[in-house]
Amino acid sequence: MGRDKARLRIGTRSLLAHVRALGLELGLPVMVQRRDAVPRCGPLGGVLSALQSTRADTVLFLACDMPLLTGSWPRKLLKVLPPNVSAAFTELDGVVGFPFIVRASGLPIVRQQIDAGQFSLQALARALQAARLIAGPDQKRALLNVNTPEELALARTAAEPNEDRTTAGTRPATTSRTRGPSAARVGKGSNRPPARARRRRPGTGRARRVPYRNSSTASQRPAAPPNPGYKGS
User: Residue 106's closest CA among 84, 128, 132, 80?
Assistant: First the structure.
């Protein structure tokens, strides 16, 4: 694409914001993976970084360039992960890819793959003896990966009917959660409306609301800390 795909926009949101909203829709803590622990080893660098830094026992990995993905497919993926298996991958046309899930117990195998120079997700899925959720023709649209201007235009056209969809009413899990998956690091900042500053009326103990002013001299309430969580790549 010649540009940072995470900043490309579909409707009013960037690709990064789309996938971050998906993580919140799933009710999971969201983390953004910006730097890999080991550079130049493809997606495995992000997988290694995520598993080394998370406190969760399972991590769901989402790609920021899949803006048509909805919550139904990741939920199915979570259900096919057996208790005694360390990973589950999406398989489309015989090839595994995003989204996928890896347990923290799979960290040693991820390290072994990187040490051996085996950087592909295909090799990682084999090494982890991962479960696979096979996508049919009806899932191809949701799993569209945006890599070309033509695919971006297709995604924008397909997303138009859903542009008004929101994640109102969903809440991410708390940062102390240690059971179940955590959304991969996919988001930056917050989609919440700006907070309002509060100012006391002169000579009274009551406070009144005043519009939030986004300037360096305005009195601003500190922003809420970002939600921790699915590492995107």
Answer: 128
Q: Per-residue pLDDT tens for 178-227?
A: 344 444 444 233 333 333 334 444 454 444 443 433 333 333 334 444 44
Locate the DSSP E strands across the chain: 9-10, 13-14, 58-61, 87-92, 95-103, 131-135, 181-183, 197-200, 207-210
**What local confidence, expressed as pLDDT, does residue 138 receive?**
87
pTM above 0.70, yes or no: no
DSSP states along 144-199: ----SHHHHHHHHHHHGGGTT---TT--PPPTT--SSEEE-S---S--SPPP-EEE
Per CATH, the homologous superfamily of domain 5-188 is Spore Coat Polysaccharide Biosynthesis Protein SpsA; Chain A (3.90.550.10)
Residue 174 makes CB contacts below 8 A (sequence gap 6+) with 29
pLDDT value for 123: 97
Residue 146 has pLDDT above 80, yes or no: yes
Looking at the chain, the whole-number percentage of residues with pLDDT higher than 70 is 68
The answer to whether 199 touches 207, Cβ cutoff 8 Å, is yes
**Contact in structure between 107 and 52 (CB atoms under 8 Å):** yes
Plot region of 180 (φ>0 → left; ψ -120 to 50 → alpha; else → beta): left
Q: Tokens representing 147?
A: 């890599």
What CA–CA distance (Å, rounded) separates 194 from 117? 46
What pLDDT sits at residue 52? 92
Selection from 16, 71, 5, 73 nearest residue 231 by Cα = 16
Q: Are 224 and 25 in contact (CB under 8 A)?
A: no
